Amino acid sequence: MSQRTKTYLLHGGLFLVTLITTTMAGAEWMFGRLFIPIEKMKTLGWEEFVAGFQFSIPFLAILTVHEFGHYFTAKANKVRVTLPYYIPLWLGIGQSIGTLGAFIRIKDYINSRKKYFDIGIAGPLAGFALALVVLWYGFTHLPPPEYIFTIHPEYQKWGLDYGQYAYRNLPPGGAVGLGDNLLFNFFKTYVADPARVPHPYEMIHYPYLMAGYLALFFTSLNLIPIGQLDGGHILYALIGRDLYRWVAPALFIVFAFYAGLGLFKPSDFAVPTNEAFFSELGSFGLYVGFLYLAFSRISENRMTSWLITLSVVATQLVFSWIQPQWEGYSGFLVFVFVLGRFLGIYHPETELQEPLDAKRKILGWLALVVFVLCFSLKPFLVT
User: Which ranges carry the Peptidase M50 domain (predicted)?
Assistant: First the structure.
């Protein structure tokens, strides 16, 4: 067997496994049950698995179009790249989407701002275009509002006013909802029949809405204009190396500040016992250490990293003291850590610093508009 055949089998095998895991995860979101038997819950079977393709096919189609946008543009620029590697991940206990995404590996050194721009922008714009189609289809083909009773028959006692009662006494994490962004809100408001739009905590049961929303979510993450993310490539090419060295770390600091805003408040330390105080203080110390690890590569000087970390934490506490109701989204902290420690805040240097032409500049700023349209301050709502 040739090496090329082995390579095709590897990429094809990963895709097929990912198709299976995303189908299983999609079915679990759709029906609110699991494939693994647990006490007092009916398990999912073959019929539900087949229904899960309504999620996996559009979701993987968007992901695939995104990656092949990078792939074909890299080939056009004579940059050697691999086929997409799909990463399957099914937890079996719910709360997963069946994959950690996909990536292509660039085998060549890219020496040009233009090449970075072309390769970086092709993926998110291609995937975004297909995401619009999926969202349009999902919102124009919503089932009658009574459909939710097939998933939650216990809601029938409240009728279509279930949203006022169903979530009152749920335990923490008992319901997961899709947040909002400008584009998703546009589809809900101006494309869909308002009478058929489900409650935010029930949209996870609608596979096309779920697939389209996740596509917007991951598009926005990819377009964050920091480091080696697609948005980082785009902004680096737009504004150049010298300015990007200042803009990228500033944006990263703002992102980290928002993610942790409200996680700790001065009032949290006003506790009745010493034991509770030291427990809160220990948690706060772990958070400060976590942020330092995320900021540790923002500068070669450790003291600078510590000063940035402590400044961010102090400013968060001041904001929380002035406006206790202001809160960020702590779910972003994981991505802050991955970005700061692994993906990088800065952009690789390029030998050629040629400016972009007018067409590329327009596309670049359009991509940043797409980022704004797709980005959600609170992408997932959890009771």
Answer: 55-240
**Tens-level pLDDT at each residue, the chain (383 residues):** 788 899 999 999 999 999 999 999 999 999 988 998 887 778 999 999 999 999 999 999 999 999 999 999 999 999 999 999 999 999 887 789 999 999 999 999 998 999 999 999 999 999 999 999 999 999 999 999 999 999 999 999 999 999 899 898 888 777 889 999 999 999 999 999 999 999 999 999 999 999 999 999 999 999 999 999 999 999 999 999 999 999 999 999 999 999 999 999 999 888 888 888 999 999 999 999 999 999 999 999 999 999 999 999 999 999 999 999 999 999 999 999 999 999 999 998 888 888 899 999 999 999 999 999 999 999 998 88
Provide the pairing of β-strand 85-89 with 98-103: antiparallel
The domain segmentation of the chain, as residue ranges, is 3-145+179-225, 241-352
- Closest C-alpha to 121, from 24, 279, 235: 235
CA distance readout (Å), 201 to 121, 169, 263, 351: 33, 14, 23, 50
